[in-house]
## 1
Amino acid sequence: MASKALYSHRDPVLKKRDDFEDILEERRNSSDLRYAFKCYTPVLYRGLTPCKAATLKSMVLQSEQLLHVINQVSAESGESTDVVKDEAAAILEEMAHRLQLRTIRFFAYTLSKAFKALYRSVCVNEEGIQRLQQAMQEHPVVLLPSHRSYMDFLMMSYILYTYDLSLPVIAAGMDFLGMKFVGEMLRMSGAFFIRRSFGGDQLYWAVFSEYVKTMLRKGYAPIEFFLEGTRSRTCKSLTPKLGLLNIVMEPFFKGEVFDVNLVPVSMSYERVLEESLYARELLGVPKPKESTSGLLKARKILSEDYGSMHVYFSPPVSVRSLAQGRINRSQFNLTPRCGGSGHVAQKPSEETQAFVNDVAYRIVRLQQENMVVKPWVLVATLLLQSVEGMELTELMEQTSWLRDLARMFGAFLDWPDHTPCSMVVSSSISLHRNLACVSGSRISLVVEGPQGPETPEEALFNRAVSVLSCASYRNQVLHVFLRPALLAMALSNANSSRKEDIYSCFDFLRNVFSDEFILSPGASVQDFDEACHLLVKCGAVELLHQDVVMAESGRTVLSFLTLLLEPFLQGYQVVCRYLREEATENLTEKQFIPAVRSFAVKLHLSGSLKCYEVLSSDLQKNALNALIRLNVVRRVRTNEQVLFKVNKAAVNSVEDTLGGRIPTQKSILARL
Amino acid sequence: MASIGDGSERQRIAQQRLRVLAGHLRRLGAEERPGVAAQECRAGAGTTEPDDKPPCSVPKRRQDIMKWNGWGYADSKFFFNKKGQGEFTGKRYRLSGLILPSLKDWFEGTFGANLQHKSPAVPSLNTSAVAPPSLNEAFVEELKSTGIPFSHDTEDRVFRAHGHCLHEIFSLRDGRVGRCPDMVVWPNCHNDVVKIVELACKHSVCLIPYGGGTSVSSALECPPEETRSIVSLDTSQMNRILWIDEKNLTAHVEAGIIGQDLERLLNESGYCTGHEPDSMEFSSLGGWVATRASGMKKNIYGNIEDLVVHIKMVTPRGVIEKSCQGPRMSTGPDIHHFILGSEGTLGVVTEVTLKIRPIPEYQKYGSVVFPNFQQGVACLREVAKQRCAPASIRLMDNEQFQFGHALKPQVSSIFTSFLDGLKKFYITKFKGFDPHHLCVATLLFEGDREKVLQHEKLVYDIAAKFGGLAAGEDNGQRGYMLTFVIAYLRDLGMEYYVIGESFETSVPWDRVLDLCRNVKERIVRECKEKGVQFPPLSTCRVTQTYDAGACVYFYFAFNYRGLSDPVHVYEQVEHAAREEILANGGSLSHHHGVGKLRKEWMQETISSVGLGMLKSVKDYLDPNNIFGNRNLL
């Protein structure tokens, strides 16, 4: 299998990880002002020819690649090339960053103050920083942080400034420009702005990709962007977007640079600033528009405690070594470097696309691997499995059990040494008192409610907010348990203990959930092996010849794992049920989410549904995408809108298979 | 001379003969050298050694004047004298007898080498280490009856068992000799070759043509799997200029003649071919044809394929040649192009008609300093675009520039060294060139004095647009000298644990910079990964320009102390470098050829259908693989 080379299958526990250093400690002990005005002399890329932001722009505008597209656009549209050129210049003006040290120093000062107020500590692996520094000298570097919060990119630049590393230029969404003044400040601290969608705009694409590639080729600055494309509202990693990754890898494919180093950065927050905002957004309350006044209003968050934060710089991944044997770079030998007929339309070859996709997944997996898991994450996971609350002592016991299991599965746990479990748990609970409260000997979720009486819908909504907020913590540990959990679920769904039956069930579930979780395409067999390995290791199952059998002692682990994925399973079944029962012939894209939501609300109010996560628009979208991928639902584009055509019989069969009522197809057997 | 009657033609030839004879007489008593011989090989038995056929600069017994385990003449070599200064022995070259004071520092600094750490070669060939010849008695018997000279002397065989690839020379220095030809034959003319090939076919003997022995593609290596008797067919005695046609400006020459002899003999008649590959001291005309050679001055004279008008080749199927000497023909695919680059797999080139030119009136070297390599490449590209390239224009990168400087002879006066210092000051301080980035283009102009000067101005004006500063004739000339002594320098390196070689490619203009950077970097990186203790020398020059691209030449060398199998490491790195070249849009070879060294990439290079075409030609011409050197395919 081609992707095998990319995913080394090792025992996750053996992974060696670096130690952390708290960078706020020094801030608390010395002058922020002096820090902001410190001597900043980063080590630069050795192939760098220094140039100013303005020179960079003119280089882009004069690049042959762009001139070629300009001529083409002008020929197609009939506009004179000068007009198109001006247009390109305007696009670039709107896009380009204006990185300047002044602004960075300003941010260094203000962010020091803010971070000290928000966080107890900001921990960084210094060995990662050293590796990064090395890499930055050698080759162009692309920084790929996870994206959970607006804080992410501020924090990245702040850390790089602190360690005297080259400041990155950051791809940001155009929405920030809506914020007066702040947008420009971000621009001056290295952000460049791209439109969220520019599908058919050839000129825009050309300016944009040329801009990024020029910076990369010249080694102008490290390039930073978020593979996930947007902040993950659920704290689960999102399916990676490939556009920018393609752009930054292309100079290597074409031999314009010797290598490109990709550096995954895992940013884990003990408490995400946006936690309840996200939950509301998932339930259909629109996201507040980015605005300066909104930002100012949000300053009350400064008075809250957001715990600690961990930033882990993974070792740089060399695109060259990944591409070894996978990409035939001489495929470009027969076309001109720039120009030729329609080089923008020239899509990357299938081989290249598959490769970029694999790399993207690999990077996201690396991000996940080095995400720090806080004790609260384990507590939240357990709480969600007993929504009605549980005895505190039982929680302590189970948390300690889960800690050991998570460790065995390779989780990067931040668990204080030499502290009794009960202390750790109660201090987590107190940090998250907005989510969980202890009354007497029981602990339960906090549900905010209005002062007065509330309608059943309001009550449901409020309860859903707290469940989804809690779920966003549980989601942070899903990647650790995901594969064994899919296997556990396959074990209970498959009415057989034969390995091949279980595999086909596993493969089906994996396929269904591949929009929901990060499951690298084509790595099904490896994932299965990994899951088996882990479950055997913790004594939950035994492998006998051609059979996978549940072990006597495995009941606890397996039922925990099954319960972990239960909300998703139920959610997908509800979506199926909606499509089967209520979807009309002319279901439009816009109608889908509200309709599923009200269907689910109805089920809830009637008492036949207990699961809250089905209310999440994220889950609903993922389920729909899965059904489209499985060819059960068809997307039809008409003049004005997008319609969904549902094959009800097929939906029914997916729903039943999910419920374990009918066995999965055996067509995949050959792969075992 | 308007009318070209028979009489006047005869008269002209006669006059020329007189000139030639006069030339011989002038050098009477001096060592014998080949001359123009307007005479065919005598027919019948006992054809060999025509009376008027003088031996060439390299004798039949190469061992008399050549090194057995290194490059070139035995009397010429670099060494470090007792004071640690570099010196070049002998009297043959401009550098001969000179002291090179900066060589040691450059050598030690670049390679981390040390003059205390020597890796000497075995002093002489241990003939007992060479497997005895396996002769095909029937073939030998019949060959004897033809009177064509042959030998199975061990030294003769060993000399023809290798080219100048690093692994070949390294083994020899170690006293290791692989499979050798079992005997050597020296045909004196085309007819001798016809006989030899006939006999080889009759007795199933493997023939490997040998010209100047300068191959760097393992082309001369005897295939170890070959079970037949291997006969090396040494063309060196076919070295006469058969006629010169001044009307058409062509010369008909036997293909065994080596470059320096061809050029000298033509010069005596006031002509030249202008074909000057770096190996021209030793490489032969037939070898040029068989490998698609390229000469330094190809901008004026063209590469070998532009120079040949007619080729005669003996194949197992018979003799192949065209019926006329029309300058261009539309008669199906050009059969010359099956022969050019066939690397001895199809037959032996015996006679070639070449274009000749009057010797240019004026020659001038020059050089230009650029602030960096990018600017230099941009300038060369512009020169190529305007089609005003001088006879030769080469751009050396910074490392090679410094390399060239290490070969600067001791300056004779304080004044010169003061002047040198001043120049350096002007370029680095006043003009702000970074001494670690600047690079030099070397130029060679040829033609009428007036035109040369005009041309020179044009080129310098273009260079100025790219920040280039004229840097004098000396730098230029030294640059060209480097290419002639580089192989001698490798022998010096091998005395001190340094091994290296050169390789080349051709590449479209828009990829030149990327290719140079990536290949150099790849070499450095691979060396590190393979455990080489010191950073290697990894340097390149753009050595030829074309309308649509350039030829790039790399030098690569490293200090192998601490490595158990340096040659293997070397080969792995070279292999990786070639992969990198191909990935960056470079060709498999510009002029070194494929041999056995680069065979593995042939299919990728010319497609499997292309390879099939070549194979079917081979199958037709040589179904029994008499020409069994196994090159190319």
## 2
Amino acid sequence: QLSLFRFTVKRPFSTSHSSVDSKEVKKFQLLAHKWWDEEGEYAALHSMNDIRVPFIRDTLLSMSSNYHLGNPLSGIKILDVGCGGGLLSEPLGRLGASVTGIDPVEDNIRTADQHKSFDPVLVKRVQYKSSSLEEIVEESMETFDVIVASEVVEHVADLEMFIKCCSQVLKPEGSLFITTINKTQLSYVLGIVVAEKIMGIVPEGTHEWEKFVPPEELERLLESNGFSVKTVSGMLYNPLSGSWSWAESTSLNYAVHAVKSGAQAQSHSTAPPPETDIQQHSATAGTVP
Amino acid sequence: RAPLRSAASSPPLYDVVVSGGGMVGSAMAAVLGHDIHFHDKKIALLEAGPRKEYNHMPDRYSNRVSSISPGSATLLSSCGAWDHICSLRLKPFRRMQVWDACSEAMITFEKDDLDDMGYIVENDVIMSALTKQLDAVADQVEVFYSSKAVGYTWPLPSHSCDTSPWVQVELADGRRLQTKLLIGADGHNSVVRKEAEIKNIEHQYDQSAVVATLHLSEATDNNVAWQRFLPTGPIALLPLSDTASSLVWSTSHDHALELVAMDEESFVDSINSAFWSNINHSDFIDTAGAMFRSAISLLKPSGTAVRQLPPSVAKVDPESRAMFPLGMGHATEYVQHRVALIGDAAHRVHPLAGQGVNLGFGDIACLAHHLSAAAFNGSDLGSLKHLLKFETERQRHNVSLIAATDVLKRLYSTTLAPLVLLRTWGLQATNALPPVKVRI
């Protein structure tokens, strides 16, 4: 069953068995050098840190009993999938985590590496790799305490496979954080027409409405692949103030926190355990992240 | 700690460098050093002067004192400095009486609950406490004494980086530092502000302040701060103990030179005369003022307070007389990418409101709050995003106070009847109106 994930030649672009979409890769290559302009094309992603970093940080702190507020994520291994120029990897690294950022676009990784290179703390804590998620699965089985996939799942070719890979590289009871965009009429009007074509909040052509993911579908896929969904919360961007806030409604942007079930799968859902090709290693029970 | 980059040429990198080790710079470094989210961060404080030992306080009071507001006391408490100050010496005051030389108009301030309105503390006492608290966080804060910063190199905007994104600081002895955030606390002639090319609106008043330590004629419950507006400028008596007070007399440069040069007896006479004499009163103003007062007492019987008499002065501490020129200044920007200004570097104000150092401590409380949140969010400390929040909050607060102080200074610098009448009635009205008084 593992043959599905084995590659003899490492390629940055997709094959038919990858969750990486080659058209998407090309789109991001053009903007690789724009990542770190806080007022530029990626301004909305920069300001999203103001809510997604506290969301990740506080969720992890609430699950832990032993931390220091000067270095709250110390000792936690995080995988940032689709890290882009490292906008989210850097703050997580500054908070003490060991971060591995992966992205299929080599130019993004180059930008990310260059940006962190002047800060010795980040050089130590954050590593980048040009790779798809599938390509690291083999060497990273159950390696990470946390996976962050922020503004990524709306770009992947095969969402279910992506989730299965996440499960494979995540330790039992590890956390998965996702932020993405819902597939609604509203998200078409505001997320594509207004955001891309009219106001230029998002570079044009970044998103395809067809690939947006409704939270119900995401939850279903997560629950049927060994995850227990703990939190789903709407997010709202205010283009006038340039800032994000939490919202009641998930019709536009939303965030999800899910936890991979422990080794002796204490099942949270009533569905039968998945019979697809996820190998559950029998990790020692009772390990607390 | 050893520099973390193996390349020998790279200067040590700090998270925050505070330039200027006066009361405001030292307090900024101490507050950050005690912040839990800065536990693993590296802070440097640059002070041009040598380290002063404050092992024991001299019996004589120092002639440089500050009026510390309760808000500032809270800030100093948060970094553990207030306890030291209390164990050294300070004088709480409960009341402030402010009146005009040209009329009977008077305004008194006091808190309803008879709490302390503020504290008169010698600047040396504050510095001693802050030095102790900096020693306590030596793991976080490295203090560089006798280290004057002579040059700054600013980074290019963050996204166009092949060169170092940090601020480069060059010291007089050739040593270099790098920092993610530079805080300029280097006074009203701030080098940081000038090198950052931040425009400063400034104005030299045609006044100097004369300071001295005075001994009162008789011991008294010395818990009132007195200020009288003379046509030449305000004279203030700030309590130090039951028998001593500190003088701050703002007056013309020439008069200030005279005051500092004259013999001690004449000096004491000048002070007493300034507080007690009525030669600037005119019948017209007195009558108009009295009429207004009776009008108020009809509408609001409690609106005219009892006038207390200021203490009289017997003698001045020899060699405690000094003078310094006064001016006003306000930086058009408090922040830039990787730079923030606090204290007199950002704003300079006339001492008549007793606010100078309190504005600086207010800057610290606000900036430390934003930096602490930024650190806990894993943000780049030098990012304009949170620095601008600090600037907006503080400019909003400071500009109105500085403008009001400037207006008051000008309003009270004249004997012209219409303006005297205006300010007389204004003062009387303000004294009668609780909401306005409380705001102040």
